[in-house]
What does this fold into?
Amino acid sequence: MTVDDVLREVKKKIREKIPPDIDITEIEFEGPLLVIYTKHPYKFAENESIIRQLAKTLQKRITVRPDPTVLTDSKVAEKKIKEIVPPEAEITNLYFQPDVGEVIIEAVKPGMVIGKKGALLTEIKKEINWTPRVVRTPPIQSKTVRDIRTYLRTVSEERKNILRAIGRRLHRGLSENEKFVRITALGGFREVGRSCALLHTQDSKILVDVGIDVSSTSNGSPYLHLPEVLPLESIDAVVITHAHLDHSGLVPLLYKYGYDGPTYCTPPTRDLMVLLQMDYLKVAVADARKTPYSSEHIRNMLKHCITLDYGDTTDIAPGVRLTFHNAGHILGSSVCHFHIGEGLYNVVFTGDIKYERTWLFNPAVNRFPRLEAVVMESTYGGRKDLQPSRREAVEKLKEIIDRTLKRKGKVLIPVFAVGRSQEVMIALENLMKNEQLPNVPVYLDGMIWEATAIHTAYPEYLNNHLRSLIFHKGENPLLSDIFERVDSYDARQDLLSNPDPCIVLATSGMINGGPVMEYLKAWSEDEKNTLIFVGYQAEGTLGRRIQKGWKEIPLTMAGKMVTIKIKMEVETCDGFSGHSDRGQLMSYISNMSPRPERVIFCHGEESKCLELASVVHRRFNLNTCAPMNMETIRLK
It folds into this structure.
């Protein structure tokens, strides 16, 4: 059966179910959605059960969009929205998205835009025919979020054509070939960095993560040249677990070399991924390194991005459905559940997980409707990899900082812009608010401010406590007055020469580039100062060398080789990691429902992958393995 046959059958069933007074102008697949265009969108709004019944009958995700001919001109629509919505709602922005017939209404008080039982939204819909979507105004405006929305608006027609091409390919139907499920390890197996795996069935090829090892000078890319992967046009979908570069850094490269399919991720992952990729290019150019792709390829990736919220289940390839769940690692990070065939096989890729409630997130999800296999990280899977609790970590951080400030020193904390920064910020805000630390300025340098702004744009992805603070009490610890942004070269130079004690959070987290290098160079030879590691330091990085006790460090800065002496105090404050420790990884499997038949370990140094595979096999009597890169495992 061809996609046209499928569509013909679908159209027939839809027209049979929809009342004749509702004018349907077009029915088309757009990405994973079946889209019904109508001249009477408000009639669907008044009778929502029609779509629910259709979705159940057709087993597809259905959305109704207004026919472009009935959409009110955006300038007129804007005026009408502001007439309907009371001024007390404080509308800050309106984003019209012609490709989906939606208008995003950004307001300080979203409830006042919605109205009692959604009355105002219904009125807006009837007046302008655009579908209104209300979001809370973020307290810090993110340039990245604004630029992404603006860009997607400018390419709305092109994006619609892209989604239609993806939809047709996705709904091409299943073959009668022998059924199988295989996973090929392409990167990040028995190592940390360049995470990438191929999930392969008789009808579909899906890449899960396409990362880069930023600490490597020779083999930083996954094995994308293997015959199973090529040609790239044969890949049906790319699924990204989270935005860190070791999981998302090479996605634009695929579009450079011919891939033109979808990239699935959560909305925060899309925004953070673009932020980190653009910064990666910027840092590479500053260090006179060759870049694997350009900003044009990032924009191409963005045009092909399809975002899904936690809990949404959607078809992403023939015979494959995807559901994202919270992974607890960073904003928008996902545990990816793949349902293959009609009950044939279910496999979960955890990505990076934190199985503990943190300052920012709820614990990683480990309960699924069905499950046979898990592909799981093992960063801290070694026998001695037991992390202190968040409470113990904060206590140690407090002691180190207090000691440094008492001797009039400066505290330098290298952090990843996304995740660790915000965790440490909330911990510091809490310590100073409760007067457990002196109230000194906390400077944020690098992308931390912009990454924090993106966090404020997606409060629904934070943990229950933070959401309650933000929505019900109007408090957000990330917006405390103690934080000061270092937003220019001059501001950084002033801070470097300022003799007063302070705390600086600067990127990058493994000291392999970024503004942290400037602070290290300026402050490393003063014994009063302290360097605190709060995140994982990969083998081969500058951070790992300093952590091991190196006292002389050769650095390449702006193309010149310099050697700096490390006389400042060096401390490691474990417990802030976004990764689960050995105990949490074991608990994650122990409490998993249903119990998987096999567990495949990756994203850890070789010894840790092997050790964790061995102990999980012994303790839980599960089939386990830790494959090497380029190995293929048949699951079914």
Observations:
- The chain has a mean pLDDT of 93.
